[in-house]
Description:
The structure holds 2 protein chains of 2 kinds.
Chain A: H1 2-20, E1 25-34, H2 41-51, E2 61-67, E3 70-73, E4 79-80, E5 96-100, E6 104-112
Parallel strand pairs in A: 1-2
Antiparallel strand pairs in A: 1-6, 3-4, 3-5
Helix pairs in contact in A: 1-2
Chain B: E1 2-10, H1 13-29, E2 32-37, H2 44-55, E3 61-67, H3 72-78, E4 83-88, H4 97-107, E5 113-117, E6 134-140, H5 147-150, H6 152-157, E7 160-164, H7 176-186, E8 191-194, H8 203-221
Parallel strand pairs in B: 2-5, 2-6, 3-4, 3-5, 6-7, 7-8
Helix pairs in contact in B: 1-4, 2-8
Bound molecules: zinc ion (ZN).
Amino acid sequence: MHEVGLICSLMDQVTESAAQNGITRILSVKLVVGKLTLAQPDFLHFAFANLSPGTIFEGARLEIEERPLVLRCTACGTETRPEYLDYFCPACGERMEIISGDELFIEYYEGDNGEDGSGG
Amino acid sequence: MAVKVVMGQRLLKANAAVAQENRARFAAAGTLVVNLISSPGAGKTTLLEQTLVRLGGRFRIGVIEGDIYTTRDAERIAGKGTAVVQVNTAGICHLDASMVARACEELGAAYDILFIENVGNLVCPAEFDLGEDVKVALLSVAEGGDKPAKYPLVFRSAGAVVITKADLLPFTDFDLAGVTGEIRALNPEVKVFILSARTGEGVEEWCRWVEEMFLRKRAAGSGTGSE
Ligand SMILES: [Zn+2]
């Protein structure tokens, strides 16, 4: 259900931007999702497919890029890619910081602005 | 003609804007807002009941009860003579800022302290800013100690963590020192309370903290205030 809320946000934000850009139909949306957000790509696709009919997203493709969890030690710079957040450096025991894995953003979308110039 | 629009925009932007409006409204009213987040069954409602018993006489307290479908929790709290608004999220697993804004319209008058009992879930509520002053994550001894590592976002964004059902500690293999250490590693500044709403142990200290947060907010807001 988390994913339904996220897709609602995505649709609101893209719809607003599309209106500003004179875009009447969305062809694709690219979403970047870090592992820490616990958003499941399958459920995101499912939510998108179920919420898009009757909207400017009807027939559009949702592309999801998953980013793994990457941590870096604040002291010695050691990088790890653990399954779960693990807070202390395996090499020196200092605190790790998150380099990647908490992303949740719309990278871009493609749409049709209704002007000719292609044989669609 | 097909065009590509680069956004680079974080999801939940719309929610963030409404949360800012809520925050401004709470600041103007001098209301301390506490957002309670936990898994189902961690004891949010029981802690709230005990908190109302201790603080209800001295402060005007409002409660927003988030629930996916039922009104059971709201009924329990309403029995304590507190103003309660129930928000049914109709299947959505978290409260968002606009639900809180609508609930506040319904609650009406200004309150000293507003508790928001979020929908039982450790994932989504962490993502949605409601305009609160502080998020409080509850973790019950009965749930086991692996929650901080599994759901780091909520424990990182919390201003306090309450470990509930401490009366069960002797009967579980809950590693209190280990879990507390993990929480502090995620979030060094976080306040950690260990309490049992059933026996009352530790509840006083939690209430004192809420009261201090309220007084600090009032002191910071100076100009506006009660009456
Ligand atoms: Zn290191």
